[in-house]
Amino acid sequence: MRPSEPWGVYVHIPWCAIRCPYCAFAVDARAQRPERAYTDAVLQQWDSEREYFSDTPSSLYFGGGTPSQADPAEIARIIQAVAPAPDAEITAEVNPGKLDAGRLAELASVGINRVSLGVQSFQPDVARRLGRAHSCKEADDVYALARTLGFRSISLDLIFAVPGQTLADFDADLDRIAACPPNHVSLYGLTIEPGTPFHRAGYGKKSSEAEEADDDLWRRMYDRATERLADVGIHVYEVSNFAAAGHRSRHNEHYWRARSWAGLGASAHGCRPAVASDPPRLGAWRTQTRSEVDAYIHDPSSIAEHVGEESLLAELIGSTLRHVDGVDLESVFERTGFRIAVPEALLRQGTLSVENGVLKLHPKDLPVVDFVAARLCEARHRSIIDSA
Ligand code: SF4
Question: CA–CA separation, 317 vs 143, rounded Å?
């Protein structure tokens, strides 16, 4: 980890009331949850990984699963053990169901200062297709309640390109967002992952009538969101994330800027900094824990895998270019030993720009970031001076 670089802690809370049909996350929907044993395992993992990080984390993020389904006392135990910086951003993902809304005040009282509300859609038909257990009124209510509790920042999650969803359906969701408006919006086009109930039901397969919204509609929905959110002061800053001034997700910035974070809990990924005894330019160690909850409780250690320079380059370009602040080319060289010969054609057509050594993707081209990142990785070369 470079000196004084901020870092964060992610904690996976696997509990869910039901499994949604598009969900590919590691979730546990059983009625009797071993919550205390799970927290004990998280704390045991934290004890063994703490030494790799200096100072205190600038963010702590409870994701899932559904952190608002957890006993707030267990969340409090984790906050106390992790001991984030006094001004740290501490986020919990919250579902808009009745139980979850009832826990909002307790989450605020144990130190959660930012909530991410998993609304996904305010439209009854779309929400039903997504298998959401909450009603649209519950979504409205949980937002209103969160506002009264004084959270520092409120984010709403929306899903688009749902099978059968029209542009009018999506516009109606954007109307509701504009009426709130939250401080932050995370916007995801639905992808049908193999192994999910949606995939088993035939969605996303070319032969099915219920295939994913076509690329053209996907793009029109994305562009509509970008314009309409900007109208209410919520601007795109990462391909899937939009924020009002001062409300960017501090925690997610660690991922997008390829910094370090500890990944705690079942199925959690982390990124450990290199230590002094590692070879020069060994950028990072990726960590991964067991996915299944009982297996994790039994053995909460993570497995660490060295990220080679080629992989680190792909990750650095792929994640930092997603962000409107772009990527510092000198820092790419320092961390990987590679320089990038930025393709002239992409500069000429305005897809990319370089200013003061920072490479940026034009905001209108954020949705094609993967394609551009692949072109840039092909255009890498070793510095002659470095390899001499
Ligand atoms: S609530 Fe979220 S994590 Fe839980 S099953 Fe549904 S989509 Fe997955």
Answer: 35
